[in-house]
Amino acid sequence: MVQRILLTFLTIALSEVSLAIEDTKPLATGRIVGGRQVDIRDFPYQLSLLHDGYHICGASVMSSRLALTAGHCCTGVNVSNLTIRGGSSTNDFGGIVFTVDRLFIHPEYDVRNLNFDVCLLRIVGTFAGKPNIGLIQLGTSGGTLPTGAIGTVSGWGATQTNGNAVRNLRATQVKILTTKDCTIQTQNYVNTTESMLCAGNVGSSICVGDSGGPLVYQQRQVGVVSFIINECGGIAPAVYTRLSNKSVRDFITRQINNDQQRRF
């Protein structure tokens, strides 16, 4: 049976018809598949979304008060239980922990197929001027990346499908597939949509705990970690929310423009 696996430690496995949610306190072992340990100073936009103090998803700095993550990271949770750690290479120590006071989930988010899997979180206070914290720009609105483009994905995800979170931030490079190749390589498993893009290599990919994290190409964020098919680093590529999709991009920019303290 094909499994569409969500990469948050609150949500474990999603099939075509059912969603299983698990409130897990992860151990600090494992790593992003095929990755290397990195310093937050080189990835200042990377954030850790915490539930009751435990890492569940990645996120990225979009503006002075808004963080971007996956829609499924924002469902089935109470906002009062969420915080965000920024400015630290570890997800359980250091940096600054911010209180989250509001969630904005894409209005067309579909829990069944993870279409429009994107969410913005608003913090109390500001990311601006804080040590080792900086925003990441969105990719261009054109939506077409060159064939063979290599992106960078970062996070605190596990080393294997049923693994646990890592303590130290890791990153890996992944090949970003064209829309045609994405469709061909996933058609036997899932139906990808216009709001999705594929990336990954066998043995080098995202894993559980990386949900919501940024996929970056040429210093701009082009995707948000959404789900994997069957296993981490397997033959099927990982699937991301495509930030050049008009509906996704309009949703993000509208929330940023609506925020009165958006200046960084």
From TrEMBL:
Entry annotated with the keyword Protease: yes
Segments forming a coiled coil: none
PROSITE patterns, per the entry: TRYPSIN_DOM, TRYPSIN_HIS, TRYPSIN_SER
Residue span, Peptidase S1 domain: 32-257
The UniProt record lists the keyword Repeat: no
Signal peptide range in chain numbering: 1-20
InterPro entries, alphabetized: Peptidase_S1, Peptidase_S1_PA, Peptidase_S1_PA_chymotrypsin, Peptidase_S1A, Trypsin_dom, TRYPSIN_HIS, TRYPSIN_SER
Keywords (A to Z) from UniProt: Digestion, Disulfide bond, Hydrolase, Protease, Serine protease, Signal
Any one GO BP annotation for this protein: proteolysis
SMART domains membership: Tryp_SPc (SM00020)
GO molecular function, one term: serine-type endopeptidase activity
Family statement drawn from the similarity comment of this UniProt entry: Belongs to the peptidase S1 family. CLIP subfamily.
Protein name: Peptidase S1 domain-containing protein
Lineage, opening ranks: Eukaryota, Metazoa, Ecdysozoa, Arthropoda, Hexapoda
